[in-house]
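SAM-dependent methyltransferase (Acidovorax delafieldii), 289 aa
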Amino acid sequence: MNNNWWLKLQERIWGLSPWDARQISDEWFRAHFDYAADVVNQWVGGTVDIRTARLLNFGCGDGITDLSLVLRYGATAIHGVDIRKEYAKLPRIAREQLGMRRIPAALTFETITPGARLADRHGGMDGIMSWSTFEHVQRDQLLPILQDLHACLRPGGVFFLQIEPLFHSPYGSHLRRYDEVPWHHLLVTEEVLWNTIEAHEGPINAEEVDFGFADFGVEGYKRFVFKEYQQLNRLTADELVDLVRQAGFSVEKQERRSVEMAPPPELLSRYSDEILRNNEIFLLLRKGA
Ligand SMILES: C[S@@+](CC[C@H](N)C(=O)[O-])C[C@H]1O[C@@H](n2cnc3c(N)ncnc32)[C@H](O)[C@@H]1O
């Protein structure tokens, strides 16, 4: 946000705006403010000092996780980048959910074009994080973007990357809010899948309703999430690990989570059991010193 100098001045005069987590009423907000921020802090905070680190959030979305890292874990410099501008809603969201009058000056945001080079302007970062974003990046841009993020880090800097759900897992379509049939996207045609989404009526899981929902309306949101589904890059965990290594990172730590569900036999002739059940990956990557 380019009014950051104004926020800084206000914060210097009045201090950080008071906030109260007891006001949280939105489940999407809670999932990011509590869970996502806790996980990022656990992975990143274990290797760099969050309170002094310069951090970059690649695919920051509405910035709720970044806000939480500042308020709950003392982060002092987080720059969020995204191809959409959902973060512009953060001042309103923070007012409604936390009673905050101003978002902290520690947060800055930027809209980028897909694949835009960041390293020239954002070098020397101590840490980068990316939450549920890399499955949305166009396949041919994956390696150049990872190489660029590698160049954004200082030697020894870390990159925490999380993806959930992975494409081949039961709800890897990201359409579960409309369709509870596991692996449905791998079993039926796109037309059948869209008909299922279109026919859905009634409320959807509040944890999966982001703050963009109000912009689209009920039917528009269905079209939006279906288009997002069609654009997923279908990465597997192995492909991702291979790409991050090609980009120059070393894998310091990784965790893969899998569902305890039996995939349909017809899928097991096309994909391995491991790929079909692996729904989440966490990677802690490091740039060599
Ligand atoms: C599922 S959302 C996750 C947002 C946020 N990390 C969160 O946890 O709410 C995926 C985000 O990735 C962003 N995105 C997709 N492709 C991108 C790209 N090439 N560069 C930067 N952001 C991208 C989207 O605009 C979207 O905000």
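The pocket of S-adenosylmethionine is lined by residues 32, 36, 58-61, 65, 82-84, 86, 114, 131-133, 136-137 (CB under 6 Å). The chain has a mean pLDDT of 96. ok done for today
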